[in-house]
Amino acid sequence: MSKNFFSTDQTSAAHPTDIFSVVTTKDYVITATGDSTIRFFDALNTGHALAHEIKTPHRTGIHHLSASPDADLVAAVGFDGSISLWSLLDGKEHSVISSPEKTFWAVVFSPDGAFLAATGIDGNVTVWDVRGDDPVACGYLETKGTPGLCIDYSNDGRYIATGHENGGLYIFDTETARLSFSLPGHTKSVRAVAFSPLSKLLAAAGDSNVVTVYSVKSSEMVFNLAGHSQWIMSLDWNFEGEYIVTGSFDKTLKVWSVEQTECVATQADSDGAIWAVKWTKTSGTSLPQGFVSVGSDKTVRWYREATGG
Amino acid sequence: MDSEAEYIIDDELSASNVLLERIECLILNMLSNSYDSANNSYKEMQIQLLNRRSSTYSMSKTMAIRKSLGNQAKQQTVSFPGLAASNSSRFAMLIHTLDIISNNLSNNSVVTKRDIFYKGKWLYKSQYEVDRMIDDIAATLNVSRHDLGIVASPKGIMAGYYVMKNCGGDITKIGNGTDVTLVPTMEADNVFIVLDDINYVLVIEKEAVFQRLVSSGFYNRPELGRALLITVVISLIEDGKGYPDVTTRAFIRSISKAYPALPLFGIVDSDPYGIHILGTYKFGSKAMAHESLNLATSSLLWIGVQLLGYASVGAYDVLSNSDRKMALRMLENVWIDCEEASDLRAELQKMLFLGKKAEMDVAGFNEGSGMIGYLANLLRINLAKHCDRK
Lengths: 309, 390
Hints:
The complex is a heterodimer of chains A (309) and B (390). Chain A has 309 residues and is mainly β. Chain A contains no helices and 28 strands. Helices cover 41% and strands 20% of the residues of chain B. The chains are: A mainly beta (309), B alpha/beta (390).
């Protein structure tokens, strides 16, 4: 059974250069790029006007973002390897995390917004308590040391997962601060990891062009999703955990049914590689569910599910 | 990355330290010997140099050393203050060159002979003086020029269509395609070049690719028209990269001034070195900052190879840690922020983001068109864009 999504809008030249990252909150679609700005687009109203913009000190450009779930902080990682935190209420800088020995790469907030976790080129994970005025490092998780490319925090707060350049895929237990599982299956770079909303499954994807889904409890692979012809750069579960959306270097987006374990929709509107894709935060609203994608063609694309069909 | 010729040599650190100590010894001995303790006064300062005959000048490093230590080598004394002014200036050259060498050794960097001459024009009267001093120092220390962190200057070559004339207007040379010649030194050779007959100029980072293009007749493809192809020859022994020398840069700059409407395209590897080399043509090098107005060609357009232009990702290589560092250093430079460098900046970011790089040699490999087909297509697109702009 296929599912219909259609493109509702696109913001061309949303940034002057590649858009490497996108996150969604109830109100905004937030993007970050090589031009070192963070832009906030109206998530609710068609037209999706640019609401505001933050000029960050990341001169070398930004490639990863995360927004805290209660949406009062957004974290940006620059090519310079530092992390900056911004208050979403007033757009002011909250704090900067940088270390001469570390090149941070990907970040994620804990589901309660109390912690920020980052992986970096040394492959290890640092966790900070971000409740105060300044982030306080409070946890450190070690891996075998190849660059970490992606990170996610499970919704129950129990686990952190990281994907690595050499295909390494790890699940850490946040209570014991220990490695729970090292998951085999990927021999090429893992560029995206995401826990299912109920924290039972972990999806990972990257240069093998396949999404692999594991049971978090047993670490067994449950199923995989094949169909992209090139690297998968990004993936995201929808709110109910029924669908996974993926964005690929092959310029397409695919929506996969978790129940049927197959592709139910493919979108091929982009002229360039897709760098990131996220479901919009529509739960609790009357809006149909949808997703946004960004990539090398500098455009933000909005999609939503066709309803009543 | 500060200058066009500064790149890192990884495994020669200990040897460098030994050499550095020997140079320091040379200077310290000179200073202590110049003090006459009996009279509590200073004599003239002297350094003994081995004088290497010019016959060994262009030989490979091992050969050159052996020969320089043979019977031909003879001692010379360089002193200050000297008997004649020329002797004093030779002393100044010696100290200056030793200073450059010490710098190379302690920073593990490399400079070209050409750089030393241009940066020391106030001191050296000719390139020959530089070359001779370097060879003498190498002979004295019993090492190769390469060990001192000094490499021969790269040389520009070209093929395609052009007419070279002297100042009297007489034709001295006609390029008719396949013949490969040295890029002329505009001032010294007293020539100028006429390019009435071509559609574009293509500057290529790699000589091997240039040679393949020349032998395939790329300078006159039906869909692209006539062209002038330029590249830089690197000495393999010296492990150089495709950084252009001053002559080649001045030549390309003079083309852009004489023919502002003629499109100038540059093609380099999609790796940090490639982008830096393109940047050196386009914006000049820090080493030659004082000359960059005469040497930089801001109208040179980077057209590839582009990391995202390959239809198959199989051609990519992993970006190493040192590649990452170099890319980041470039992103932190000031020139990368200017409008004309925006596509170079974006390309570096793509490399870092993907953790990949790509060489031009394998472009088009998976498309079946091969590298030449890939480049021809790239030029076709960019020539069309150029026409649209006009």
